[in-house]
Amino acid sequence: MPRFFCPAPLLDGQSLALPASAARHVQVLRLQPGQAITLFNGDGGEWDATITRMGRSDVDVSLGAHHVTEREPARAVHLALGMPANERMDWLVEKAAELGVASLQPLHTAHSVLRLAGERATKKQAHWQSVAVAACEQCGGNRVPAVQPVADLAAWLKGLPAIDAAQPVLRCLLSLAEGTQALGEALAAARADTPVLFLSGPEGGLSPQEEALARASGFTPVTLGPRVLRAETAALAALVQAASGG
């Protein structure tokens, strides 16, 4: 059944007009009044809905029952990453959303090829957020990961909250340094529901100075194994391992 993201308060029996992006999607699919669809708003669960009217550019629906359906990993996994070049960031956002990432933080780092600022950065963030929405519509996810504004690594690290022992978040730095702990060991030492924040570099990785800053901010260097993975592959491999319980 077609699924559409509707970022608004939703109630059983409610009638409403779909947001423009969802309405366009319904038009593209050539759906008709009387056809059943599914809506979700990112707050959890999903709603049965029926198309009641098709306008030239607008679509009205009537909501049915709400289903408390969650398809998210038991452990919240957040990715902060030096942005890979070209179209790889689009692919990474799409696949991370499919795999259940909780949020994504694009970063400028010393070795970053992609540099964004001002209006261009704002437009890219909005584009990546739409990619995440489309991925959730396709895969059945009912909670859309937030794509944060592009930030510089040092400033982002400085702005992180102090580590709270009462509400711990496992901070992991993907690193190729010798003697680095295996990610599985770091995950095994934490509770199964402890959120994880991964910091991963772009092509070429993080500089030694950036790794030192990350360690000073409470990140534990971890490794995914003996192979050297592409930047986007490493981030997704870490996400899968953490989301599946390590």
What does this structure look like?
- With 246 residues, the chain is an alpha/beta fold.
- The protein is 31% helix and 25% strand.
- The chain contains 7 helices and 13 strands.
- The strands form 2 sheets. Strands 6, 7, 8, 9, 10, 11, 12 and 13 form an 8-stranded parallel beta sheet that branches.
- The longest helix is centred in the middle third of the chain and has 22 residues.
- It is elongated.
List keywords for this structure.
246 residues, alpha/beta, 5-stranded mixed β-sheet, 7 helices, 25% strand
Structural class of the helices, strands and pairings? alpha/beta
Q: Which sequence of SSEs, written as H and E, runs from N to C? A: EEHEEEEHEHEEHEEHEHEH
The largest sheet, given as strand count, sense and whether it forms a barrel, is: 8 strands, parallel
Radius of gyration: 20 Å
Beta-sheet strand percentage?
Answer: 15-25%
Number of strands: 13
Low-confidence stretches: none
- Our measurement of the CA-to-CA distance between the termini, rounded to an integer number of angstroms, reads 33 Å
What's the rounded overall pLDDT mean? 93
Helix proportion range: 25-40%
Number of helices: 7
Instruction: Report the principal-axis shape.
Output: elongated
